[in-house]
């Protein structure tokens, strides 16, 4: 982990000068402060031996003069020196001693600083992760009391870094939000930049690639501008990881190349630093030689010979060091060139693999679109006819049966959608709608749909709803129905001559006014063996059951898992052979106050009354399916709208030339001529008539093509009746009268 750690000696020296000046004015303070200054100078010039000597004097004289602040400072300096020289074990010993002295002195500022140092040290080892967190939290707590916001901010950064390195992104984000609340004006600019970089890392762990990319690219630009090697290494490394995760291998390679460029720069700077240490050592030896020759001129010759030998040895060592460094650099570049060559070869393979995958994806997309159209088209007829029959007053006695029929058709449509999209749908791909519904009506429709299957297996379904639960909710009743229907259907499938229970029980009320509700589906069937319990949640997997007449897709429990993930919930299973099975889950549902109707929710449900002006309108229905033609025509008739029928695009063009229609409902997939081709021709002689696509094709891949053909809007069938009427009313009411050319 690259730790954002300010130079410890520098900060403590400045602080101690101020703090001790307020508490001691004696000569001892001047003596000890001189040791601090000398140690600081020695450290800056890589003279760690002298720095250690003066730090040791600080400890010795601090004890003698009973000035614990300087004793603390001596141990803290020693800890920093040994860490700098890669002796982390000795560094921890001295840093822990410094913190112990700070606790004895009860000096909050010293305790906070010592705790931060130890937190950074322990964060380097995953085995001491808990100790690191403990020390960071202690430092934060103390600095908050002291209102030292910059130190709190600095400690937050190291804590976030440690959490991310130990795969704790959620905890890291909570700390990051706390850091954002600190007074911005008191925070060091570089610390703000590092916090933004860590925010980008967090977004990357959450696969929020666009936001992460924006953050990391901003940090990379700052690093390039400020020539900050450490910051650039972090930014380009994670940008390369991000582009690789999104299969953007070109940008991944570009950022990886930038990463290696800065890595080489860091390597060069390290070598320069080591050379600088050798140079300083050589210059100090020369200064010492000159001093000794001035004091002892009679021994000049002997000293010169002695120093010449020493100088020769030093120069030889330096030359050897430089030669070894050049050899190391040569092998580094050779290895890098080989690595880049291999990476380019792999990149070509990945590009070819991507092209192959894109070809397969196009074939798959075309297949899904065709299957979707073929399945949804007959469903449009079923749902449309059942809706029309429900509104027929003569069939009022069959309302419950028609409700169950439409409910089953709606569920079948949702199931088809899930099956078609399952291969490209992750948990985030399940979108939950927000519409009002009544829980008792929903459960009644669900249980009604199982009447025949319950009778076949001689089972009884028991519904138990806690009386304290409200009945009206706002949410996604279709998705909830999918979960319950799959679980109940699963129970019926494995149970004969038995009982199935559906139980609803409130657990607690949340702060956001939602209610945490436990749903439980249980049966007294044969149970599920332990070794089969994980297997049943896999796609297209079924286990043997006594009800050999039942055939399923093996997708039920897979769909349940995916939907519940969208609710931030999970399915729990308790079962053993001979004792039945119990599936349960807990979700948060929002109660719905029917006396306060929200406009944003009900606008999509509220059906605007059709004005008398629409009764004079004439609509052309273009569809190759006769049943779907009749369903659409009868729907329009119920709202006093006249319509004509065309079986394909070619017929529609001919009719449009003879009649000035007020609106055209255009199917897309038709024989002879499809809807998009027909629309382009109609637009050649009539640019005013509204044309709406009434189609069952998959919109994800075809929407832009449909709209580019000249079609004004799209209605996806099977459609929601209020939305359908509302859309055609909008286009009919705003259309101005036109005349044929």
How would you sum up the major sheet?
7 strands, mixed
Quickly give the structural class: alpha/beta
The CATH class assignment of the largest domain is: Alpha Beta
Inertia-based shape: elongated
How many helices?
Answer: 25
CATH architecture of the largest domain: 2-Layer Sandwich
**CATH fold field value of the largest domain:** Heat Shock Protein 90
The CATH homology group name of the largest domain: Histidine kinase-like ATPase, C-terminal domain
Tally of distinct domains: 5
Helix content: 55-70%
β-sheet strand percentage: 5-15%
Number of strands: 12
List segments where confidence is low: pLDDT < 50 over at least 5 consecutive residues: 1-24, 275-295, 547-552, 597-611, 737-741
Provide the gyration radius in Å: 38 Å
Termini separation: 74 Å
The overall pLDDT average reads 78
Catalytic activity: ATP + protein L-histidine = ADP + protein N-phospho-L-histidine
Protein name: histidine kinase
GO molecular function: ATP binding
Enzyme class: transferase
Would you kindly provide a written description of the structure presented here, covering whatever features stand out?
- There is one protein chain.
- The protein is of the alpha/beta class and 741 residues long.
- It is built from 25 helices and twelve strands.
- Strands 1, 2, 3, 4, 5, 6 and 7 form a seven-stranded mixed β-sheet that branches. A five-stranded parallel β-sheet has the order 9-8-10-11-12, sandwiched between helices.
- Helix 8 (149-165) runs parallel beside helix 10, helix 9 (169-180) runs antiparallel to helix 10 (189-205) and helix 13 packs antiparallel against helix 14 (300-390).
- It is elongated.
């Amino acid at each position: 982990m690259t730790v954002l750690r300010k130079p410890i000696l520098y900060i403590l020296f400045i602080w101690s000068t101020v703090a001790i000046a307020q508490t001691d004015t004696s000569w001892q303070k001047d003596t000890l402060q001189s040791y601090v200054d000398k140690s600081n100078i020695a450290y800056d010039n890589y003279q760690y031996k002298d720095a250690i000597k003066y730090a040791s004097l600080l400890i010795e004289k601090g004890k003698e003069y009973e000035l614990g602040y300087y004793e603390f400072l001596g141990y803290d300096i020693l800890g920093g020196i040994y860490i700098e020289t890669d002796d982390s074990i000795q560094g921890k010993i001295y840093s822990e001693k410094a913190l112990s002295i700070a606790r004895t002195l009860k000096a909050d500022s010293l305790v906070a600083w010592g705790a931060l140092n130890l937190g950074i040290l322990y964060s380097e080892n995953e085995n001491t992760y808990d100790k690191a967190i403990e020390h960071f939290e202690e430092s934060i707590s103390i600095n908050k009391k002291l209102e030292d916001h910059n130190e709190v901010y600095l400690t937050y950064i190291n804590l976030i870094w440690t959490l991310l390195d130990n795969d704790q992104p959620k905890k890291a984000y909570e700390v990051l939000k706390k850091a954002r609340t600190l007074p911005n004006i008191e925070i060091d600019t570089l610390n703000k930049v590092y916090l933004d970089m860590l925010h980008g890392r967090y977004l990357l762990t959450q696969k929020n690639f666009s936001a992460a990319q924006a953050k990391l690219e901003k940090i990379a630009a700052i690093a390039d501008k400020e020539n900050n090697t450490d910051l650039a290494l972090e930014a380009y490394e994670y940008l390369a990881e991000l582009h690789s995760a999104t299969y953007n291998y070109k940008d991944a390679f570009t950022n990886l190349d930038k990463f290696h460029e800065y890595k080489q720069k860091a390597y060069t700077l390290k070598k320069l630093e080591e050379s600088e240490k050798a140079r300083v050592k050589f210059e100090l030896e020369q200064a010492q030689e000159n001093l000794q020759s001035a004091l002892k001129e009679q021994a000049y010759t002997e000293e010169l010979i002695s120093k010449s030998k020493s100088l020769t040895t030093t120069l030889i060592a330096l030359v050897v060091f430089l030669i070894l460094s050049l050899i190391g650099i040569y092998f580094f570049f050779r290895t890098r060139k080989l690595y880049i060559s291999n990476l380019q070869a792999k990149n070509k393979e990945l590009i070819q693999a991507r092209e192959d995958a894109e070809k397969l994806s196009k074939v798959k997309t075309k297949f899904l679109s065709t299957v979707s159209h073929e399945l949804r088209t007959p469903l449009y007829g079923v749902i449309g006819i059942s809706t029309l029959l429900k509104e027929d007053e003569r069939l009022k006695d069959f309302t419950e049966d028609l409700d169950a029929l439409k409910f089953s058709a709606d569920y079948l449509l949702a199931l088809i959608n899930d099956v078609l999209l399952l291969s490209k749908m992750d948990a985030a791909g399940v979108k939950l709608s927000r519409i009002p519904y009544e829980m008792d009506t929903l459960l009644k429709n669900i249980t009604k749909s199982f009447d025949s299957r319950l009778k076949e297996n001689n089972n009884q379904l028991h519904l138990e709803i806690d009386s304290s639960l409200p009945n009206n909710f706002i949410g996604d009743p279709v998705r909830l129905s999918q979960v319950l229907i799959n679980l109940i259907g699963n129970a019926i499938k494995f149970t004969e001559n038995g009982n199935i229970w559906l139980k609803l029980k409130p657990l607690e009320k949340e702060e956001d006014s939602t209610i945490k509700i436990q749903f439980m589906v249980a049966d007294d069937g044969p149970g599920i063996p332990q070794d089969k319990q994980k297997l049943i949640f896999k796609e297209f997997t079924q286990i043997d059951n006594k009800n050999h007449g039942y055939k399923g897709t093996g997708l039920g429990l897979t769909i349940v898992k995916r939907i519940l993930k969208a609710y931030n919930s999970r399915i729990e299973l308790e079962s053993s052979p001979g004792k039945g099975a119990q599936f349960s889950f807990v979700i948060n549902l929002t109660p719905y106050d029917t006396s306060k109707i929200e406009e944003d929710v009900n606008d999509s449900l509220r059906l605007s009354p059709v004005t008398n002006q629409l009764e004079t309108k004439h609509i052309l229905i273009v569809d190759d399916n006769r049943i779907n033609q009749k369903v659409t025509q009868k729907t329009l008739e119920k709202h006093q709208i006249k319509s004509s029928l065309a079986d394909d695009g070619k017929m529609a063009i001919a009719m449009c030339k003879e009649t000035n229609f007020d609106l055209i409902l255009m199917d897309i997939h038709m024989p002879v001529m499809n809807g998009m081709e027909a629309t382009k021709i109609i637009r050649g002689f009539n640019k005013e008539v509204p044309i709406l696509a009434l189609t069952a094709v998959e919109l994800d891949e075809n929407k832009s093509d449909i709209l580019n053909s000249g079609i004004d809007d799209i209605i996806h069938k099977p459609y929601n009746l209020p939305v359908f009427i509302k859309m055609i009313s909008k286009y009919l009411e705003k259309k101005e009268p036109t005349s044929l050319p």
